[in-house]
Write a structure and sequence with these properties.
Strand order of the largest sheet: 1-5-4-3-2-6-7-8
Oligomer: single chain
CATH superfamily: Hypothetical Protein Pfu-838710-001
Distance between the termini: 44 Å
Helix content: 25-40%
Shape: globular
CATH topology: Hypothetical Protein Pfu-838710-001
Strand content: 35-45%
Low-confidence stretches: none
Order of helices and strands: EHEHEEEHHEEEHH
CATH architecture: Beta Barrel
Length: 195
């Protein structure tokens, strides 16, 4: 299954997160875990793409994210617990639509390795025709808070998102997606470990 993802995101301070959480009367967060994969030479990262397994509400989903003109193309594939355990223990990428797409990208599915996991407590609320998401994520000894706004219209979504930030006096912050934040933390760990 494929879908086009258009979303806006902004990192938050803990107090900004708490204020939004309270004002929007968010529900109790659900936990999800993202397991990130790439080749040892980071072929996916170099192609501005990402591969993850998400565990959420008992569902296991493999997702390949690829950039397109206005957003991100996500290809999803449902996994079994055995598939996940195999991939996490170094068995390479399981067969299916995503493996076929990786072959088209000239990336060997056998070279795919697990780089680590990120846990997120996520809560969502509909807001002006889109989905407002508050995330509190933990990974590699780091934690961060993030506001996401998922929409179907880029222009209208951007206006609503910026208006929301302005109304809460939250500055627009250059915000990498979760996998980029994870990799930056991983690279910093590797560099500090190499000293």
């Amino acid at each position: 299954m494929q879908e086009l993802e258009i979303e806006f995101k902004n990192l938050l301070t803990k107090s900004e997160y708490k204020k939004l959480y309270q004002d929007f009367e968010m529900d109790q967060p659900m936990q999800q875990v993202n397991h990130y994969f790439d080749t040892p030479l980071f072929h996916l990262k170099d192609a501005h793409s990402a591969l993850r397994i998400r565990e959420k509400g008992g569902k296991l989903t493999l997702t390949l994210k690829q950039p397109v003109e206005e957003g991100i193309l996500e290809t999803h594939q449902t996994l079994t617990r055995l598939d996940v355990e195999d991939m996490l223990s170094g068995g390479g990428l399981i067969g299916g639509e995503i493996a076929d797409m990786m072959e088209l990208m000239n990336i060997s599915t056998q070279d795919i390795v697990h780089f680590g996991s990120l846990e997120t407590n996520r809560t969502e609320k509909t807001y002006k025709g889109g989905l407002l998401v508050l995330d509190h994520s933990s990974y590699l000894g780091h934690e961060d808070y993030e506001l996401e706004y998922e929409v179907s219209s880029h222009q209208e979504g951007k206006e609503n998102f910026l208006s929301l930030l302005t109304s809460y006096k939250i500055p627009v912050r250059e915000t990498d997606n979760k996998i980029k934040r994870f990799y930056k933390a991983r690279f910093m760990q590797n560099r500090e470990g190499g000293k």
